[in-house]
Amino acid sequence: MRREQSALPPIRIAEDDSRRLSSLANSTMDLFPRVAQFLARELERATVTAGNDLHDVVRMGSKVTYRDDGTGASRQIVLVYPHEANIELNRISILTPVGAALIGLSVGQRIEFETPDKRVRSLTVLAVSE
Prior knowledge:
Elements: H1 2-6, E1 12-14, H2 15-27, H3 33-45, E2 47-49, E3 63-68, E4 74-80, E5 91-93, H4 97-102, E6 110-114, E7 120-129
Parallel strand pairs: 1-2, 4-5
Antiparallel strand pairs: 3-4, 3-7, 6-7
Helix pairs in contact: 2-3
Domain Transcription elongation factor GreA/GreB C-terminal: 55-129
GO molecular function, one term: kinase activity
Domain Regulator of nucleoside diphosphate kinase N-terminal: 9-48
């Protein structure tokens, strides 16, 4: 477990997002234990900042283009809270493995994570905009 965590890229999260996402992870631990625990671990290791210098960082509401490193396919999504999620509009909830993996990453960073079916997936952030 230690080796795995040291390989994770450094992430930055705005103070407001950190506070709200911590509450969300705690309140959904019973409903979605795996992804809520993953999100909570990501929040624990994040550097919390004052939100102004995060223009190239995936935040809540960010439009994100990422590449699935396993397939090579790129996808553009907007990272949203669960009640705003809509797969047809590419609005992906933070309470999905992909959403929890992307939060706090900067352009060019790559992360590996385990999917609910125990496969390892790797994503690279290609672009971030508001």
